[in-house]
Amino acid sequence: MKYLGLSLAALLACAPGASVWAQSAAGTPAPALAPAAAASAPASAEGQSSAHAAAAAHRKSERDRIRHEREAVKAQQVKDEAACYQRFAAEDCLKAVRAQVRDVETRLRAQEIELNDAERKEKAADRRKSIEEKQRPVPANTPAGAGPDAVLRKPAADPQATKAQRDHEADVRAQQQRSNVQKNAQEQQSRAAENAVRASQARAKHAEALRAAEERRARVEKAQADAAAQGRKPAAPLPPVPAAP
Q1: pLDDT in tens, 192-203
Q2: Cα–Cα distance measured from residue 21 to residue 145, given in angstroms and rounded to the nearest whole number
Q3: Whole-structure pTM over 0.70, yes or no?
Q4: Is the Cβ–Cβ distance between 18 and 99 less than 8 Å?
Q5: CA distance 162 to 80
Q6: How confident is the model at residue 155 (pLDDT cuts 50, 70, 90)?
Q7: What is the rounded distance in angstroms from the CA atom of residue 204 to the CA atom of residue 191?
Q8: Domain regions of the chain by residue span
Q9: 81: Cα separation from own chain's centroid
Q10: At 7, is the secondary structure helix, strand, or coil?
Q11: What whole-number distance in Å separates Cα of residue 20 and Cα of residue 153?
Q12: Residue 138 region by backbone torsions, left for phi larger than 0, else alpha for psi between -120 and 50, else beta
């Protein structure tokens, strides 16, 4: 076991990307999240907006750094694995390289999770504040449009406007229902017309079949009569004509 540990250490020390892996293993310090300062930002809307913009810019910068570091680690992994295949103990070398990749990826993923958590907390705080602003009662003597809170809160619903909206929606639904009924009636009329055409065609076809059958019967009867007049055996009678559908 002691020899195996020394062998792995030697492989890591002589790997082509040893210096790069040493830097990646040490890691970039975890980002000092700027949103923490936003929690104690001034209560004014401009100050809060500025703090949110700074926090968003910080998160974007950190995500770009993580992405670039991840790309660099993947590129170094390809090089190191190619070098491992040139060694005698290639499998041990590959395991060591991939273990280092996993360690770096774990660290970068932890930093991403920390950034995402900070962003979720900031959005949740904004939602809570918006709800509190909307639910805050408006003083009776406060003029319309006075103060920043009046901009955030929605005005009280107008009963007449609400009734007009409901009436409009009811008219739209009634019109849609009438359109559906009319469409169904037109479809039924179209199907009835098609059925009538098919029935007429069937009757005409049957009448033509009857006429042809009568002509054949007349020819057979004439042939039978001629055969009887000449003393020959008459032909067999034709089958009965089918009834109309």
Answers
A1: 888 888 888 888
A2: 60
A3: no
A4: no
A5: 70
A6: low
A7: 20
A8: 2-138+148-152, 188-245
A9: 38
A10: helix
A11: 55
A12: beta
